[in-house]
Amino acid sequence: MESSRNKKTTHKSKKSSRKPLAPAAKQRRLQNRRVAFILVIFLILAAVIVGKLVYLQIIDSSDQYARQVDQVVDQVQVQASRGNIYDRNGNILAQDSSAKAVYIIPSEITDEDKLVKELAQKLDLKEDSLRKKAEKLENDYVIVKNSISASEGQRAHALDRDGLKYRDGTLYAYPDKIDDAKTTAKALAAIFDNLSYKTALGYLTERENSAVLIKSQVDNSLANKILKDMTVKKNGEVQSTNGVELIDDSRRYYTNGNFASYVLGFTNQNYQGVSGVESTYNSWLSGQNGLAYLQKDASGNTLPSLTKVVKQPKKGKDLVLTIDSNIQIMAEKALNESIKEWKAKRGTAIVMDVDTGEILAMATKPDYDLNNPYTLNKTYAKNYSDQLDGKSNADKLNLMWSNPAVSFTYEPGSTFKPITASSAFEEGAISPSDKVVCNGSINIDGVTINCTATHGVQTAAEAVSNSCNPGLVQIIQKLDPTLFYRYAYDYGFGKTTGIELPGEEAGVMTRVFKSGNSINLLDYSNLSFGQGLMTTPIQLLSALNSVINNGHYMRPTVISSQNKGISSNASTSASKQIISKATSKEMRQIMEKVVTNNPELASLAGDYSIGGKTGTAQKVENGEYSHSKYVTSFFGFTPVKNPKYAVLVVIDEAQSGAYGAQSAAPAAIKILQQTSDYMNPSSKSSTKMTKNTVTVPDVTGQEVEFAKEILKEKGITYKVDDSAGGSVVVSQSLKSKSTYKSGKTMVLVTGKSADDTNAKVTVPDLSGMNIQEANEILTGLGLKIKVKGSGFAVSQNPKAGTKVNRNSKVTVTFKQK
Amino acid sequence: MADRQQHGGRRQSGRRYWSRPDRAFTLALLVLTGFGLLMVFSASMYTSSVSSATGSGYAQFIKQAVYVIGGLFVLWFASRIDYRKFNNVHVALVALVITAALLGFVLVAGSEVNGAKRWLAVGSITFQPSEFAKLTGIIYASSIVCQKKEVYSNFWKFTLYCILPMVVLCGLAAIEPSLSAAMAIGFGMLCVYFFSGIKFRYFIPYILLIVAAVGLALILQPFRLDRIRVFMGKGGADYQIRQSILAIGSGGIFGKGLGNGRQKMLFLPELQNDFIFANIGEECGLVGCVLLLILYGFIIYRGIRIAKASKTKFGYVYGCSIMALLGFQVIVNVAVATNIMPVTGMALPFISAGGTSMIILFFMMSLIVNMSRKPGRKVTVGEPKTKRRKRQKTEEKTA
């Protein structure tokens, strides 16, 4: 319509052009109309555009917005920090700490050899796997060529259907899907004139440009060292990092790496507990992960400034253990010594609070480094090479991580005897004072069971303390098997204790009835001295603990009652009484005799009130008893009258010929002594048999004032007799190194020291003193101390009794006990 | 306004001077340029900051700011050249020959970017002859229709003086290939011929020819056909278009606010160039888009008014054609960004990043600004009345 009108006007203007006045005006009108025509078209188009904008930005807006969010926003979890793990005294055993995750960006690597070498060395990784990651090809598209025809595109696509794609005039390559880059590149160069083989090959072998994880949870210092080593600087500006990128990460840090490894356990790369309480209380410790929205650009880089945390992570709850770090250290140290001395494969020690069942220490050596749990402990690998050979690394690690205190099953041997005896005594099947006879062996159904000695006629109680097998056989044969089993099950044999640690074994305690209802007497008799059943250290300790704990069975626990609202083994059921208080007392006395009657054990125990029971059992190998491999063990408790602490030490494969009394007992007794000293520093007396007293010091030769101080400190009452004048003690009424009985008064006689005149002093005997004590004594005499080592004085130079000048030096060598 | 003119006059008394230009027109241009600079900054800051070559988020912005300042200088300077000087056959022919030579030269010596030779590099300065051709094409056409009266009455003269040069320029641009530039050059020159009052029937054969040429281009360069297929809803959606729609759509009514766009994060490559409208849509929303279109509309309206007021045929056809070209580029650019039209690389005038286009645009405008200025000599304080009367008269006429 518009154009026809234009035509008309054109005709008009043509006609009127001959007239002089009209044409200019007509021409202008025509021009105006034509301009208006264009403007009208523009307005129509503008209206269309506005219409489209209204559609896009109002009607379709939420749709487009959602699609954009889809491509821009990533929803990620924000790792919640894990709760700390404390020991019973509030010492931190495990906590979160910051770390770095090491990434590489393959496309930014400038010196691959250098990078691979560095990472392999610093992060303990294999070179070939690193090389593989460094050479990773781009899995996203790479534009090879623009503005090509569809036929060219199809020809290129035909070269590699997965690796080359044609779309909208552009040829894209997916380098990681290209089968044969060289051949394909040659063919591409042939198709496109202005594409060289080299350029094409470059596109087809382009490396990944997003970060590839190499290792997470790397120590900050190590990660930064790697970055520094790889950074190339020029004029102070970073030129390249050789593809290395560090990203903040966090890791679990264990205060002492090789410490209570089996109780604590560790977490995997996903921050989930793998073993120990880290595993059993994983959800308690884990907390709740937060949620964050990350924004990323088209290349997948996240934009930190646009990260929104929509849900803050909630830190996990702290966990307090019943473990006492000091006792744990003592136990681990004692075990190490025993293993070393007896060339054993492994040792396990558990210390229990008798009244509560709380585990104060649970140690196994060799253990593994919690801060580096994926490294096989060399000692462990060596000791157990017979079992580990031919296994995969993962299997080896799994074996290393399993906690022998709860998962090692073995025949308890003689340590089981108190169980047999207490059951029989409690039932009145036999009285402790009843007589049994040992002729060095006993015959049951034609099988001879030997004894370690010929004990002759003895009481049942003596049979237990003598660890006499025939005696125990006679005891169990007096007891109705049904009752025996009831006791055995009550004591917890054949089922797990439920301790809050993973991998616990139930052991084996099966009824040895023949067909019908008659008993297999031989098997039944064997049980009496701990053969024919399997137990775990924690199971046996819990059972024996109830024998000495006035019959109360306490479920073992490593979770302190300080944790509010936690469910633990201790909280889930009440204790039960298995034997009477009287029987328990009887058993304690029997077990005290085990120690006192054995000169070796008695000397180990010293003046501590310790009861216990040794055990040595042959290991079962391929269904038969081994003649060279033994599991030796010792159960001990202190003090006998009112037991506070019980310990079980189990040594796996101590040197051939070693008995429980030799290999396991020293460690157990040492642990008991140190534990009671540590728990009751003020009154050692309560655990010692005779000593509720102190040793009298030698104060002769000391200045009176100094002597007074020493005596005050020791709690010795004294009287000073200075009738003779002088300021130096010349004699003391109580003999030095004797035992001071409370209530006695020590008289100090002063006088002028002979040394005052010749200026000589006598060097005192310092042996057994700690550094502070020795220093005080020497200073009091006007001598100087030179300290060597630490612990308690073992030797000195000059020797005691030597006369030396005042102010001269005494070198004292100290050693840990 | 008159007072200020006197003021200027007194300072430059005795010399030739130019009165102040049309305030609304220049103000609108400045607002548009400022907004464009802002949007280039917003659109390019992410790309610039992640690019290892530039390293700073300001790199593209600073470059663009330099172009704008250059453009303003061109405007200041060229608006003092009497536009009538361009109404000259010799000037027109020289411009035409130089332009054609440059377009030919770029095909030989131009640097190739994304498979197209559009750039001439002189030292570190790069230059797009096809942008230049948009200006010289219109100047040439405007001179011809004013100077060669034969073209109105003789179809063959029309073909020789008007159509042939146009075909040469468009053809050279199309070979680069820059179809959008060819379209703009052709559109601008056709507007001149159309507005000058040349008989409509003279155009008919050439309209058919253009249709044929476009058809030929589609056959020779099949990727263009793909674009049309994409546009028609066949084939996979074009990535750029999908991202552009996403940007505009997610902006909603009021937009996300300056700098808050997400599509600039490498989703829309070269966002500061042809797809800058997508960023405007995302950050300024429907309100911003419509206001921008109104601003363009105002500039076009005001420009045409100035052209009409110039009372010269050259001024009229030149001004109207420049404004039509401006409108054409805006419409094509926005129509592409909103998926109304298949993809062509048309820049959004005064907003898209680009040096040549910015300088050329300012030069185009400076002639129109010059039209709005009144020349005079030796104006003294005693003469304001005549000046005011003259001005009033002009306004009556245009109104």
Structural features, described:
Among the domains of chain A are: 2-59; 78-257 and 272-311, Penicillin-binding protein 2a (Domain 2) (Alpha-Beta Complex); 694-815, Trypsin Inhibitor V, Chain A (2-Layer Sandwich). Chain A has 30 helices and 34 strands. In chain A, the strands form twelve sheets. In chain A, strands 2, 3, 7, 10 and 13 form a five-stranded mixed beta sheet that branches. Helix content of chain B is 69%, strand content 5%. A three-stranded antiparallel beta sheet of chain B has the order 2-3-4, with helices on one face. A two-stranded antiparallel sheet of chain B has the order 1-5. In chain B, helix 2 packs antiparallel against helix 12 (276-309) and helix 12 (276-309) packs parallel to helix 14 (355-372). The longest helix of chain B has 34 residues, at 276-309. Chain B is globular, with a radius of gyration of 22 Å. The model of chain B is unreliable at 1-14, 233-237, 378-389 and 395-399 (pLDDT under 50).
Please state roughly what percent of the residues of chain A sit in beta strands, choosing from under 5%, 5-15%, 15-25%, 25-35%, 35-45% or over 45%.
15-25%
Poorly predicted parts of chain A: 1-19, 683-692
Report the sheet-strand fraction of chain B.
under 5%
Total strand count of chain A, please?
34
Q: What share of the residues of chain B lie within helices?
A: 55-70%
Q: Kindly report the average pLDDT value of chain A.
A: 83
| Oligomer description | heterodimer
Instruction: Just give the CATH class of the domain at 78-257 and 272-311 in chain A.
Output: Alpha Beta
Per CATH, what is the topology of the domain at 78-257 and 272-311 in chain A? Penicillin-binding protein 2a (Domain 2)
What is the CATH architecture annotation of the domain at 78-257 and 272-311 in chain A? Alpha-Beta Complex
Q: Structural class of the secondary elements of chain A? A: alpha+beta
Order of helices and strands of chain B: HEHHHEEEHHHHHHHHHHEH
The poorly predicted ranges of chain B are 1-14, 233-237, 378-389, 395-399
Q: Report the span from N to C terminus of chain A.
A: 117 Å
List the total number of helices of chain B. 15
Question: Tell me, what's the shape of chain A?
Answer: elongated
